[in-house]
Structure formats: C-alpha cells, structure tokens
Predict the 3D structure of the following.
Amino acid sequence: MKAIAKAHTNIALIKYWGKRNEALILPTNNSLSLTLDGFYTSTRVVFKEDLQKDTFLLNGTRIEGEQYNRVTQFLDLVRNLAQKNIYAEVESINAVPTAAGFASSASGFAALAAASSKAIGLELSDSELSRLTRQGSGSACRSIFGGFAEWQQGEKADGSDSYAVPIAPQNHWDLRVAAVVLSAKMKKVSSRAGMKRTVETSPFFKGWIESIPSEIDAIKQGILDRDFEKVGEIAEANCLKMHATTLGANPPFTYWLDSTMSVMQSVQALRASGIPAYFTIDAGPNVKVLYLPEHEEEVQQTLRSIPGVDDVKLSCAGQGITYLGDDEFV
Ligand code: PMV
C-alpha cells in the first residue's frame, strides 16, 4: 500500500478569488493556470496496519500542528472514499521556493492526493483526482494537469462538478515565467483569510465575478492561438482586478509593497520599449512576469536591476502528475 507522486506548482492567469463553500472549497469563479516546471513536491505515502496515527515528514523534518492537521484531515477524505480505516506514513520533498511567493500548497496537495489515493487502492480518473485534490487546497486541483488547466467552478452544492480540466498540454506553447523575489517582508494575510474578507465586505467583489466569464473565454482562445499579447493583457488586467477587490474590503488591505509597484512599472516600461512582458501577482507581494524565450536575457536583466529585488527564478511550462519509483524519490 505504497505510492510516490510528483506534482508541480501552477501560476493562475485568471485568479481563483472567493469561495461559495468554505468547507468543500468551492469557488465563486472559474480560474485558469499554467503549471510550472522546476517547482515541485514529491510525496511518498505508505499505509500500514500497525500505525496508531498518521505521520508527516517534510524535507526530513517531522511536522506537527496546523500543517500536520491539514495533511491528516485530507487523508481522512481518502480513507472515507476507500472505506478503509488505516493510517499512513507521509514523506514529502518540497522544491518550491516559498520565498518567491509560490504557495507550496498547490504542488503539495496535488502530490499528496495522487500518492495517497493510489497507495490506498483507489483508481481515480484525472477529474476525480482533481476533485479530491480541491478539498485539500483549491488552486492545487489545477496542478493535476500539465500546461494550461481551467478549474471549472461547477454549480452543484456537493461540489461534484467542481474540478480542473486540461486546456492545452505542456508542449503546446513555450511560455516562460520569471518569479521575482523581493527582499522586504510583510505581515501576510493568507489567501484563505483575504478571500473571505473580500467576499464578505468588498463592494468590488460583484464586479470581479461578473468580469470573469468573458475573460476566461478570451484567454482560452488566446492560448489556443498562442497569441502572447492577448494572453498577457488579459492576465495582467485580471490580476489588477483581483487586487483591487482587496482595497475595497473592510478593513481594506493590499498584498503590494512599493517594490511590487516598481516591478510592475518596469514590466510596463519593458513593453513600451518593444519587449513584450506582462505581470501577475498572487496573494503576496512577489511578482511573476510572463515572457517569450527570445526575450529571456533582457527580461531577466531588467528585473535583476530593480532596487528591492533579491532574486529572479525562471521557469517554463511544467507537466502534470507523475508517479515515481522508490529510486526516483530523492
Ligand atoms: O488555493 P489557495 O488557498 O492557495 O488560493 C490561491 C489564490 C491565488 O493564488 C491568489 C489565486 C490562484 O488562483 O492561485
């Protein structure tokens, strides 16, 4: 009863921002992302009859507390589905630069869902696996697939129609992403808390939700046509709209630092100088920049020269879930 799975993190081009059901993690809008090569989590799950409770090792350290609780609550879902009452040893290796503002929860829960469901003997389709993964962390349901994936919000109260579907595979388009790491730190409003406050108090939330369907249709066409300007413009506008909702919340908040704005302005200046590049930002201050391979040098140099930028990490499109042998778990 053992399996090892590897999942990559993803960056949303159309953001998931708002829940209609907190317990089941059901969103108020469709979202769309690119899975990223290079940033991943590998997880080994072994179910054993003689265990009295689950155990969780992350990068070699035994984890307790909130992080452990989220893992074991997720394993409860898997045990329920399989109708088996048996505990597991979970061991994860995380190669996600959390300092770069990538939530390791996306690759973490995707790898945990894939490894645990396989180890316990469930034979899930990709959609079933995505639906299960969603209940660990929403954005993780998109990491089941490589390349571009869309999380369809669904309509049903039980969440059975809320899961991700593939839009275009990893090799469809060589789109690149630079993750810009900023040196200043700030007190973090978690994505969970930020979404909740926005849904409950921001008058801009209604406008956000209404604007999504046409953006999703347009960006999907842009991806299929490999139309970089179209995809970049929609992604950047969608990110700005998401962040605008937080300014309307009560109490208002923002994830941006002044260095966040410097990076945004540099990206717009790059564009004005003829180099196509666009930004997107998740629930934190760091910026992700979309560009094409032929502009990698200029984009990287520009970003590294901005005051307040600590590091720039480059990535291309990544693959979906893969299952590994024991000797590949390093
Ligand atoms: O799934 P969570 O709780 O990590 O929320 C992710 C929210 C954003 O990163 C801001 C947007 C997204 O779609 O990934």
Summary: The two ends are 20 Å apart (CA to CA). Residues 12, 15-17, 31, 103, 105, 137-139, 191-192, 282-283 surround PMV (CB under 6 Å). The longest helix spans residues 205-224. The chain has two domains: 2-170+318-328, 176-315.
